[in-house]
Amino acid sequence: MDVSLQLYSINQETKKDFKKSVEKVSEIGYNGVEFAGYGDLTAAEVADLLKETNLYSVGSHCGLNAFTDTFEETLAFNKTIGSKYIICPWAKVDTKEEIDTLVQALNAAGDIAAEENIKVGYHNHAHEFVQVDGKYALDIIAENTNDNVVLELDVFWVAYAGIDPIEYIKKWGKKVELIHVKQINENKANVDVADGILDMKKIKEAAEYATYFVVEHEEFDKPVWDAIRNDYEALSQM
To answer: Interior CA angle at 53 toward 50 and 54, to 5°?
Structure first.
């Protein structure tokens, strides 16, 4: 499995020293990173850092305003650093109007990004499994976005919402191009990959159209770097 790390997982470390943190991610063995901020570096500096550490950019998590207000700038930055995706990590989807606004923004940005061979995506939490007009909000998003817009499915949050991640991955098939590998236990806590209830091997097998598997870890019962290393080792042995 080609394993990358969502850098938000180590945000307390990147706040101290962004470059050294990224270097440590590479030293552990991760193949790529997904950004949630750039440590005040320019696009050229980020590109140089990736080259120095032999990492690639899966993509970036950018707020919805980056799609609606500053997408040309967002796209240019991600083109420079070699991103494959630009992902919206959260949006309000409690009403049909909010979903429509999100879908329109993603479709418009996706069409523009496609000209640079970059795709746009949406990353779920649990609130997208609210029922809106008799359907899950995430289903409405998936149904109404075009082929330039994909799902980055966070399996922790799918399970947290009471949905089987494997069945949900199969439901959307080709739409699911990225998986957030994030483990959950019986108490709905985020734990090391090896210590939870989700079978990541079966999830990988179900996600037959997914190219990128991105570790995200937000709750820690041990030093951060120990957990990040544990996750990599568990997945690399898969």
So the answer is: 80
